[in-house]
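Batch manifest, entry 17 of 40.
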Amino acid sequence: MSRPSPESLVADVRNSAEGPSIGAFFDFDGTVIAGYSVVAFMRHHVTHLDIDVPTTVRTLAAAGGQALETEEDFKKFLGITLRTWVGRRPEELEKLGRQLFRDEIGPSVYPEAWRLVRAHLDRGHTVVLASSATRFQVEPAAEALGVDHTIYTAVEVGEDGRITGRPDGRSPYGEGKAAAVKEFAAAHQVDLDHSFAYSNGNEDVPFLATVGRPTAVNPSSGLRRAAAERGWPTIDFAGRPWTGPVEVARTVGTYAGMMGGFVTGLGLGLLGGSRRAGLNLGIGLGGDLSLLASGVTLDVVGGHHIWENQPAVFLFNHQSQLDVLVLGGLLRGNFAPVAKKELANNPMFGPLMRLLETAFIDRADNTQARKALEPAVERLRSGVSVVIAPEGTRSATPSPGRFKKGAFHLAMQAGVPVVPLVFRNTGEFMSRNAMVIHPGTVQVAVLPPIDVSTWDPADLDEHVEGVRRQYLETLAHWPGED
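Output type: C-alpha cells
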C-alpha cells in the first residue's frame, strides 16, 4: 500500500491518458468536503424552528458515520433525513442547498480535492460526484467545482409537487453506488479499468473496486484495512488548521496592527500636507504590521507587473477577509477599492474603506452601480489605481465564480490595463465566513497586464470569461511548479 502526496496524485492524473473515456469518480462527504453536508441542513432547520429536535439528534448522530455499518443502516438514516423534508417543494430545497453550499459547505472543500478535480478536468476526463446524498446537497458543489455529472439519491416527489419523504429508487450506497457507477460508465462509454475513484468510507470498498485506479482518501479504519489488503494507495488531506487561543490572539493583534499602522501613516502624511501620501504610507504600514502580527507571509510571482503598469484596474479572486490584508501588503498604496455597499456598514472595515475613498456599489441596482463607478474612473485618470473583486463576493471554493463586467467597463472607460492578481490559498488560512486568521504563506501570482483598449463591447462576455479562464489555469498550474 502506497501513501502518495497530494502533489504526486495530481502528477499521476496529469500523466494519465486524456479524454472522456477516462472517468474520475469522487465521493462527496468526507472526501471532497470535510465532514457531512447533512449537518448544515439540519442546523439550518433547527435554527429556523422547522424541524423537531429528536429527529435532528438522530440524524446528526448517524451522520457521524459510526451508525452506518450496512446498507440497511443507511436506509434508516436516509428515512430520518427525508422525513424532515416531507411536504416541501424541491425548488425550496434547491435554493437552500445553494445557500448552504455558499455559506457553510463550500468553505469546507478540501483544497487537495479541488486540485485533483481540476487536474482531471484539465485532462478532459469525465468527472463525476458520486454520493449517496441527495441532489440538494451534491449539485451545488458540482456546479461550483465545474463538474457536469452527478450520482445521488433521488427523492420521490408526489403528484402535488411536494416531497413524499421516500427515496425514488435505489440509493447509491455500498453495492448500490458500485452498480450506479457501472451503469453510468456503460451509458457514457467510460473505461472503468483505466478510470479513477476516490472515497473515505468503509461502505465504498465496492465503489472503489469498480475502477482500475482507486485511492482511499481520509480513510476510515475499515477502509484503511481494506486498502492495505488490496494494495490501494491511501492519503489523508490536511484539512483546516485548528483554531486555538494563540490564533485568536494573533488575529486581534492583526486588526490592531492594521488600524494602528494605517492611522499612523495617514497622520504622518497629513502632517506633510498630502492626503494621498498619507493614504499610501498608511496602507503600506498597516499591511506590514497586520501581516507580521498574523504570521502570514507573501510568496509573490510576477510582482514586477504591479509596479510597471500603474495606474491599472487590479483584479483579485476573493476568498476571505484575509484578502484585504494581502492587498495592503502587496500593493502598498496608490489605489482605491471598489466594494459592495454592505461593507460601508462593517464596523471593522467600513471606516477604513471610507478613508480609502472606496466606491461602494449596489449589486442589485445596475444603474446605481454604474453611477458609483464614475469616481473610480476619475481616480484612474488622475493616476490612482483601482482594486476590485470581479466576482462581486467571496467564492465558496478555490474556483473563482462568474466574473461581472463592471471592472472591465471601468478599465475601458479610463483607458488603463487590467492586471490580474491570483490568490492561491487565502481561503486556507481564513475561510469564507471565518473571523480568525491562521499563519502561513499566501501564494500570489501577478499576471501580465491585459490591454482592453481594443475590446469590442459586443464581445465583452467572451473577453471576461477568457480572463476568468486565466485564473483557473493559473490556479491549476501554478507558475514554477509544473
